Amino acid sequence: MKIMVINGPNLNMIGVREKGVYGTKSFEDICKYINTEGEKRGHEITLFQSNCEGEIIDELQKAYLEKYDGIIINPGAYTHYSYAIHDAIKGINIDTVEVHLSNVHAREDFRKKSVTAPACIGQMCGFGEHGYILAMKALELKNLAE
Ligand code: DQA
Fold first, then answer.
1. What is the pTM of this model?
2. Does the CB atom of residue 111 touch ligand 1 within 6 A?
3. Cα–Cα distances in Å, from 93 out to 5, 13, 30, 50, 103?
4. Potential cystine with 96: which of 10, 37, 54, 120 (Cβ 3.0-4.6 Å)?
């Protein structure tokens, strides 16, 4: 499958920021892990990270134009308030899985609400970097079922 993996704001700081919550692995290492696991599973993986809402929306639209089969997105804090990213996901008709490294439901109240998850086929959270691979697996199963 042709899969786009999008990471939002501050995820490039993983390994540096709040190590107790997000762990010590660098963002670069997590990207390598996603790429390696994706290739093993026979996927074509494109990785994208941005701290800007508009750039994330542009990338989602690009996924539509370039006919991607699936999207894995960790919108970072945009999860909790970006209706624009919600609309962008809804608008492209590509199966999208939301991922969070941390268990957002066990944290501050504002993290318990995702405005982007309702535009996705599902959400994976609390499994660290493995969440991206679990999301890949979800896209594979969904693709097989169609
Ligand atoms: C996060 C959770 C968000 O609440 C937070 O703003 C992030 C990271 C996660 O992966 O656990 O930046 O998306």
1. 0.97
2. yes
3. 16, 30, 27, 22, 27
4. 120
